[in-house]
Design goal:
Elements (H helix, E strand, L loop, with lengths): L3 E3 L20 E8 L3 H12 L4 E4 L15 E2 L7 H8 L1 H19 L12 E8 L6 H13 L5 E4 H7 L6 E10 L2 H14 L3 E3 L6 E5 L2 E6 L2 E10 L5 H4 L5 E11 L13 E4 L6 E4 L5 E8 L4 H22 L8 E12 L5 E5 L2 E8 L5 H16 L27
Parallel strand pairs: 2-3, 2-11, 3-8, 5-13, 11-18
Antiparallel strand pairs: 1-16, 4-7, 5-7, 6-7, 9-10, 10-11, 12-15, 12-16, 13-14, 14-15, 17-18
The structure holds flavin-adenine dinucleotide (FAD).
Length: 412
C-alpha cells in the first residue's frame, strides 16, 4: 500500500537515525512484533521493560510508515466526543475509553526522561472551537459531561476566545493535560531503547506468510523464518491487506508544515487547536517555531491521484491557517504531504486477539488519536502476554458489533 505522498516532515529533525540489520537466518522468540511504527515501537519498549524475549521486524526502515506522516497531536479527547461515546457505548464504557486515553497521554508524557533519544514530547493545552454557532449547545453539553467525570475542561465564550487568539469563534472548550510529539523521534527513541533492552530489531524484513500452529506461529520472511510463541501485528493500515475489518475505513488526509516563523502569532500557550466540524481541521506549533495544519480529508482510492492533490490541498490548508491568523499572510509551507488515514465506524480503535488467528494480537490504532491508542494497546497487550487479565480489551475487541446503548440521561 502506498501510505504517504509528497514531502514528509520530521526527517530534518533526526539526521542520524539508528539503523538495524535485515534478517538473514531462522530465529526463535517468545514474542514477534510485526511493524516498527508507533504501535510496534510502544509495545516493543513495553515488552523490553518486562524482559520478554522479543523480536521486531519492519518491511521498510523503522518509522517510515504512517507514523512518518503523523502530525504529533496527543489528546485525551477523541474524534468522537465523550457525549457521543456515552451515547453509543453507555456511560460507563464511554467514560472508561476517555479515562484510558487520559492514562495513555500521561504515560507518554512520562517517557522523555527514560529514553536516550529526545522524543520531543511537550505538555500542551488544547482548544476545541465551535465551527458554527449551531455547535455551541453540543459543546456546552460536552463540557458538562467532561467536568462531571473529572476531565479538565473550561467553557470559553466568544470574547474569551478572541482575547487569547487572533481569531473569533462562537465558543470553545479549553483543556489542559494534552501534549505534542515529534512522531519520528518518538518511534526511534522507543525502538532504540527497546533494542538496548534486548529486543532484536530487523528492518527491510517483510513478513510474507504465516503458519498458525498449536504452539505458536511461524512467520516467513524472504531470508529467514521466525518461530514465535505469540505475534503482535502492528502493521498499521496495511493490516487491512492481510485481514479486512468491516468496521475500518481508509481515506486520505493532508497536512503541511511551514517554514520557521520569526514571530509566533497570537496563539495562547501554543495550544493544539481543532474544531467541532467533521472532518475537522487542526493546527499546532513545533519547537522549531514552525506551524502544522492538517485536515481536508477526502475519499480517494488511487494513490497517484493523492500525489496530484497534495499541492491544491496544501494550498487550502495554508489559506485556513491565514484565515485564523491573518498576521501570517504570505506564510509558506516547507513540507506538504498526503497520506492514507484509517478510522473505525464506531469511533473506537481495534486492539487484542482475534479468534481466527491463534497466538496473535493486533494493534489497529485507527483514528486521530492513533499515538495514544498505541500506548493503551502497549500496556494492555504487554500485561496480557505476561499473564495478567486486562478486561478493558473487551472494549476494543476486533469482533465487536457496535450496538448503540440507549442512555436516557444524555441527549444524542
Ligand atoms: C497525516 C496524518 C496525521 C496524523 N496525525 C496524528 C496525530 O496528530 N496524532 C495521532 O495520535 N495520530 C495521528 N495520525 C495517526 C498516526 O499516524 C497513526 O495512528 C500511527 O502513527 C500509526 O502507527 P502504526 O504503528 O499503527 O502504523 P505505521 O506507522 O504505518 O507502522 C506500521 C509498520 O508496519 C510495517 N509493515 C506493514 N506490513 C508489514 C509486513 N508485512 N512485514 C513487516 N512490516 C510490515 C510498515 O512498514 C510500517 O512501518 C496521523 C496520521 C496521518 C496519516
Amino acid at each position: 500500500m502506498k501510505l504517504n505522498s509528497g514531502q514528509l516532515p520530521w526527517d530534518h529533525t533526526l539526521l542520524n537515525k539508528p539503523a538495524y540489520p535485515v534478517l538473514g537466518e531462522d530465529i526463535r522468540c517468545d514474542c514477534l512484533i510485526i511493524g516498527g511504527g508507533m504501535g510496534g515501537a510502544m509495545v516493543s519498549y513495553r515488552m523490553s521493560l518486562s524482559g520478554a524475549d522479543t523480536v521486531l521486524i519492519d518491511k521498510r526502515a523503522v518509522g517510515s510508515g504512517s507514523s512518518h506522516a503523523n502530525t504529533g497531536l496527543l489528546q485525551i479527547a477523541n474524534d468522537k466526543s465523550l457525549t457521543s461515546c456515552m451515547n453509543t457505548f453507555g456511560e460507563e464504557n464511554g467514560v472508561l475509553f476517555y479515562k484510558l486515553c487520559q492514562q495513555g497521554v500521561r504515560a507518554i508524557l512520562e517517557l522523555p526522561g527514560k529514553l536516550d533519544i529526545d522524543p520531543q514530547i511537550i505538555p500542551r493545552s488544547s482548544l476545541l472551537y465551535a465551527s458554527v454557532p449551531e455547535d455551541v449547545p453540543a459543546l456546552k453539553l460536552e463540557h458538562e459531561n467532561l467536568t462531571r467525570h473529572g476531565f479538565d475542561s473550561e467553557y470559553w465564550d466568544e470574547e474569551r476566545v478572541r482575547s487569547h487568539y487572533s481569531f473569533s469563534k462562537p465558543a470553545a472548550l479549553f483543556s489542559r493535560g494534552d501534549a505534542e510529539t515529534n512522531p519520528l523521534r518518538t518511534v526511534h527513541s522507543l525502538i532504540d531503547k527497546a533494542h538496548s533492552g534486548g529486543v532484536r530489531v530487523y528492518e527491510h524484513t517483510k513478513a510474507i506468510r504465516y503458519e498458525f500452529n498449536e504452539d505458536g506461529v511461524v512467520c516467513h520472511t524472504e531470508n529467514g523464518r521466525i518461530f514465535a510463541k505469540n505475534v503482535i501485528f502492528a502493521m498499521g493500515y496495511e493490516t487491512q491487506e492481510m485481514k479486512k475489518d468491516r468496521g475500518a475505513e481508509l481515506i486520505n488526509t493532508y497536512a503541511i508544515m511551514t517554514k520557521p516563523l520569526s514571530v509566533v502569532p497570537k496563539w495562547h500557550e501554543q495550544s493544539l487547536i481543532w474544531e467541532t466540524a467533521r472532518p475537522y481541521l487542526y493546527f499546532r506549533t513545533t519547537p522549531e517555531g514552525r506551524l502544522i495544519a492538517g485536515g481536508k480529508d477526502e475519499q480517494l482510492t488511487d494513490p497517484e491521484r493523492r500525489s496530484v492533490r497534495v499541492l491544491s490541498q496544501s494550498q487550502r490548508l495554508l489559506e485556513e491557517l491565514v484565515a485564523l491568523f491573518p498576521e501570517l499572510h504570505g506564510i509558506e509551507a516547507e513540507y506538504s504531504w498526503g497520506a492514507v488515514f484509517g478510522s473505525t465506524r464506531d469511533g473506537l480503535p481495534f486492539m487484542g486477539p482475534h479468534p481466527e488467528y491463534p497466538h496473535c494480537y493486533f494493534i489497529e490504532g485507527y483514528g486521530g488519536n492513533g499515538t495514544v491508542y498505541s500506548m493503551i494497546a502497549a500496556e494492555l497487550l504487554a500485561d496480557t502476554l505476561a499473564g495478567k487479565k486486562r478486561p478493558e480489551l473487551d472494549l476494543f475487541s476486533l469482533t465487536r458489533t457496535a450496538k448503540p446503548v440507549p442512555s436516557p440521561a444524555i441527549q444524542s
